[in-house]
Amino acid sequence: MQFVSALIKMGKTLYQTDEPKQISSTKPFSKPISFQIFSTALVALGSAFIIFLSIYNSDGKLVYTLDDPYIHLAVAENILNDTFGINSDEFSSPSSSIIWPYLLAIPLKLGGGELSPLAYSFPMGLASIWILSGWVWESTEKPFGIARQVAFFFCLCFLRFV
User: Fold this and answer.
1) Closest Cα to residue 64, out of 103, 98, 106, 115?
2) Rounded to an integer, what distance in angstroms lies between the CA atom of residue 157 and that of residue 47?
3) Can you give the pLDDT at residue 20?
4) Rounded Cα distance, 80 and 21, in Å
5) Once rounded to an integer, what is the mean pLDDT over residues 26-39?
6) What mean pLDDT value characterizes the chain?
7) Contact (Cβ atoms closer than 8 angstroms) between residue 79 and residue 105
8) Which of 121, 72, 124, 81 is nearest to 99 (CA)?
9) Is 3 helix (H, G, I), strand (E, B) or coil?
10) Which one of 9, 99, 103, 149 is most buried, by most CB atoms within 10 A?
11) Which phi and psi angles does 104 have, rounded to 5°?
């Protein structure tokens, strides 16, 4: 018995160091930027895949589920022709936004076509995800923090279907 206790005591002294033990983090991501990069890349890849499938399944055309992009695109085309409205021979205000058709006219002038709304919405959506994921990462220190991250990714999966 004394031999075993002597070995245990010797083993303890061999592995003792003056350096403090590092406590491993329970967070799946050690820094907020790694979580932001991961979540933004996840949304970018998922969105690109959904856009690709949409274009592939509709014979090479991007089809929007609502009529608003088409209305704004029609107004933007007519802005390029010096008229504000849907019909080129009459002035009207069919859109709910005053500046959005003017912003759409820029990529439309550059040949963006029906992809022009994506020229703004895709990067702005990714910027929103970047900001939100930083906020979610900071909340992991609070109770149910990991559950918040899981809920965040669950919401991201369905964000592009809205």
Assistant:
1) 115
2) 9
3) 52
4) 66
5) 77
6) 76
7) yes
8) 72
9) helix
10) 149
11) -70, -25
Q: Which long-range contacts (CB under 8 A, 24 or more apart) does 53-62 make?
A: 61/114, 62/114, 62/115, 62/118
- The pair of structure tokens assigned to 112 is 């963006």
pLDDT in tens, 60-116: 888 877 778 888 888 888 888 888 877 777 777 777 788 888 998 999 999 888 888
Mean pLDDT of 26-37: 75
Distances (CA, A) of 157 to 22, 67, 82: 35, 24, 41
CA pair distance 52, 65, nearest whole angstrom = 15
Residues 6+ apart with CB under 8 A from 91: 83, 84, 85
Token pair belonging to 47:
């969105």
Helix spans in 58-115 (H) = 68-80, 100-109
- How many angstroms separate the Cα of 39 from the Cα of each of 7, 145, 156? 50, 16, 8
